[in-house]
Amino acid sequence: MAKVNFPNLEPFKDELWLCGRCGDCSLADKIVASDRGVNHPCGVKNVLGFETYSAKGRIMVINDILDGNLEINQDIVDLAYACNICKNCQETCMATADGIRIPDMMEALRKDLVANGFSVQKHEEIENSIINEFNPYKETKDFRLKVFGDREFPEKAEVVYFTGCTSSYREKEIAVTTVELLSKIGINYTVLPDERCCGSILLRLGREKIFGDLTKHNIESIKRTGAKMVVTACAGCYRTWKIDVIEAGYKYDFQVLHITEFLDELISKGVASFELEDRLRVTYHDPCHLGRHSEVYEAPRRVIESIGNVELVEMTTNKRYAHCCGSGGGLKGTYGDLANEVAGNRIREAEETGAEFLLTACPFCFRGLKDGARHIGSDIKVLDLPTFLLDTKISKSMKRVKEEPLKLKFMEYLANHPMIFDGLKKGAIIEYEIEDSRFHIEVTGKREIIANPQRADNPDVELMFSPAAVTTLVTFDSEDKYAEQFGKFFKEPTDLEWIRFNLRLNIVKLLMKGYRKFAQKAGLI
Amino acid sequence: MTVVKAAASHQLYDELVAIVGQERVNDNPVIISAYSKDACHLEAERPGIVVMPNSVEEVQKIVKLCAKTKSPIMPSGGRNGICGACLPRVPNAVMLDMVNMKKLVKLDEDVMTVTVESGMRWAELIHILDNHGYKLGFRGPYGGNAATIAGSVSINSMGYAASKFGPAPEGVVSLEVVLPSGEIVRTGSAWNKDAQVFTRYSSFADLTGIFLGDHGTLGVKTKLTLKIYPNAPFSSYIDLGFTNLEDAAIAFLEIQKRGLTEELNCLLARESADTYFPGLLDSHPGINATIHSVIMETDQQLAERKVQIIREIGQELKGKDLGNFAAQIHWAEKFNEVQPMYNNGFWLNTCHLRPIVRLPELMKRMRTIFKKYNLEKNGIKWIADALAVDRAYTAAWVTIFAPTRDKMELAEKAWNEMLDAAIETGGCPYWNGLLWENRTLEKVEENFIQLYRTLKNAIDPDNIMAPNVFEGGY
Ligand SMILES: Cc1cc2nc3c(=O)[nH]c(=O)nc-3n(C[C@H](O)[C@H](O)[C@H](O)COP(=O)(O)OP(=O)(O)OC[C@H]3O[C@@H](n4cnc5c(N)ncnc54)[C@H](O)[C@@H]3O)c2cc1C
Ligand code: SF4
Ligand code: SF4
Predict the structure, then answer these.
(1) What's the mean pLDDT when you consider all of chain A?
(2) pLDDT number for residue A2
(3) CA A357, CA A284: separation in Å to the nearest integer?
């Protein structure tokens, strides 16, 4: 057996040890048994069947690789690239605070394989195309802006729309409608005259050597525009800017927003509002790079829910546990048929909701889902969110949501009693629900909190209150009395006054975030 | 669709492909790697080839092929077992991965049974039944997100709601089994083609029981009919604390005898709380053992009255009311409770059955072993818990966690002594497998095991079905 080194994979050895092979990442349906929204997390395993394709199986294979029990050959390469890096397995996994990081391990394995000369021809071509043309599609770099036709963009602007290669060269509709939408709303924006690939695909394929050059170039180019904000409609670009660029040690002083976050802000400030003429039922697919990787779940939903005459219905798996569209992790380029099958399953899930439109917010997902619908002969209409919005009546008249007085009172009370949250670490997030109206508390420092009127993207715990319980709780001056009564409502609920909760993170993570003291103060433990 | 191609070198490859198609047969070592262990550390032989049947007809054809060629066959469910039961003991076996067979076959509300294919997982069945307003009796082992119904009844699993409904096999009304000859047998009232499947015991000997706990040695289960019950929407909960395990065990037995709870478990030691939910007992310094009760009823007053009775029993027997947080979390986190403990390291289990009255004796022995091997100093955490089953006994669960690979050798030494201690203090394992087999074979009465072997030989004369299981040697 030829000696192959795994310098990127080896550091995961201790973490691999903690996988107890429970199989949750492969077979779990937690929807009723533990109300956790997990349903057979691995889209690839769901199509290919064998355990080997699930995270559990991959961990067993990786252990065999590191222990020298398996020969390194094309079969290993095939397995390594048959993964969407979608992170659904990791989100499901409760073995460690963050879940066992199988997507990172698959990327590490890919890097090691590439370094050891195990190459996939298509991936080499992608890398060469990016080196030469700054896009993975072997398109001419000078034609990047052709997608916008004769439209002219200023040199300087407040906002840069970072288009991304897929919208520039393939899913052009997204690039075109996004700029039209921005123009229609009256945003002072521009696009880069010399944008280059963000490098996402290279990272996902384990080929990172020119990532730094691409990033440096793009940062300089953005700086020249003077923009303080970069907006992208591509979930892949977004994750790269928000996570990979930072992890690679690059700094930038502009804000990066996904188009859905940007629109959400505009809507809440009354800058834009959207309305359809006829009632329509839509569902929304969370792009993995926007959702699980970057934890943006609520902004797109708020945008959709704000559209007049639109009803948003959720698929069985959504938000944290949403199935992947099948395009992620370079899978579509490597195994197109497999990606179509994964997408086909996601389309079936969308069809079950009875929605006429399946909306998403990423050119990869858009393309993948469209192909998936064609693959299984589905009539459901797949659209990217900016494209969908462009067809609505756009105006400035703000549709103010009237907040429930009890919610506002409770928020105010909690904001004035930060000691209730004493002991919780910075970043802890608790979601509150009183009869369908929601808000969340974020711990921002020692005894510092913010009460945010919106639903949280990824709360640690959800607390549900009966209105009567809230009415009583807000009367206490002392935090200790509040905590005591809180505990009573939980332990001895009545028909009128009750509190229930759901733990959204696993116990290890909750304890790390300081929930022990919180529970003790409330007399729960 | 196939990504990792089969090596196509197994002697039955072509014939298996002819039965199920290429996509569901694979003998590539990379594919096989993921079938080399279950959820424990023990190893036997790797399968020679893995097949994923979709129907009883396919299973029948596969078994007939193996019978004809005298090839070993090993049924597996979620491979969620923690005793290595599903691992072949002979080389080159055909492993059946049964998880594709997970259809709901029939929900018969007239006779309150549900018939499912064998690869259905517990959590999934709970989901399906809930949509129709029903619940199971025994709800599944704690690993029930991935454990299959057939796997669990094949190895006598214990778990959620065993307090009220007994172990996994108790819920079975009828089985459909493909025998090692390839013939199909249906047990319980299914012997009568014109009858509904409504009872296990009727007219003849109880043939269902032969296959329950058989560890896959007597045939491949393809369908199971289980008892169902109306959903019970009213729950009440209570946690009781005791200064010592002896007192806790007395109260535990009293509550269980009275049949008040859906689920009843007992943390046998204060340190267990620190492993399971650090901080759980911080506010109760004198408490060293706890009891957690879950009551579920179709009537609210009944649920409330039962919790009152339990409180009274507890308080009469030196217990303290600790509230109900732990019991509520325990039930809400169904099938998710063990996994967060993996954070402490890889687990070594000693799960077995024992009368409630013999819990303190077990704990004493375990503590001596923990001390001898200096577990605390070596960072090896442990949990000791007992789950009430059927009137007066428990599934006792004492587990240690090896935090890193280099601590595994030491942990295994301690663990081996723990297994001995469990048996020596009157424990009987529920599952056997690689974990217990040598120890149980040492103890088993000759006539008992001989009767099993006579049956096995009659049903499987060529010894193709899970060969060498119950024969020890690993
Ligand atoms: C986190 C976790 C918690 C656990 N908690 C518990 C617990 O509380 N109680 C408990 O009892 N166990 C527990 N276990 C172990 C495991 O859940 C159970 O043993 C479960 O019953 C195994 O089911 P399975 O489908 O995975 O069976 P497998 O492990 O695949 O197989 C078990 C046995 O059944 C046989 N078998 C499987 N399918 C068939 C079939 N169709 N026909 C014939 N034979 C078949 C196999 O040959 C093997 O002998 C836990 C495991 C984990 C990972
Ligand atoms: S990766 Fe996590 S969820 Fe998957 S088998 Fe391992 S411990 Fe379980
Ligand atoms: S990252 Fe996604 S595709 Fe890859 S193993 Fe995990 S769940 Fe499956």
Answers:
(1) 95
(2) 59
(3) 8
